[in-house]
Design goal:
By secondary structure, the protein is α/β, with parallel strands linked by helices. The protein contains six helices and eight strands, in the order ββαββαβαββαβαα. The longest helix has 18 residues.
Length: 188
Amino acid sequence: MLKILVTNAVQGEFTEIKWPDAELYYVRTGIGKVKAAYHLSEAINQVHPDLVINLGTAGTVNHRVGDIFVCRRFVDRDMRKLTDLGMEWQIDSSPLLAEKGYCTDWTEEGTCNTGDGFLTELTHVEGDVIDMEAYAEAFVCRAKEVPFISVKYVTDVVGQNSVKHWEDKLADAREGLSHFFNVLKERI
């Protein structure tokens, strides 16, 4: 039976999903790259999952509140600034997902931009969605050779009172993510 570890940063993002013929485990990682990496590493060591799915909320610059993106490509906006020093700042989780045959027909493709700051001012951001954990989780999963995918619900547009909108939209995010997986389950 397939073992799936589902991560979310905060309790307000928790979304129970249904997946046929799978054991699901959940871990709340906390906010930020360091906490996410630590708590995910611990959970992987305990559960030994076949797949890790990160569910959560995200901001955006170019899209709309309520959009959902399936991310297989991740950028670390903090490390991006240090590319001249040879720092790694991009991860593509597609190859391992494809090798295992997981999530191959999931659409709504997007790139997730991760950094330790909650962006509140409009700025140039590479990617479709902005969060504070996914890159770190993709990094841990790659290191542990566990397929990883992230499904993000857009709760706020950067520069438009982002913090308040994020808090107000958590219930909508849970409902939207639940609907996404209910529709997906019918296709499996």
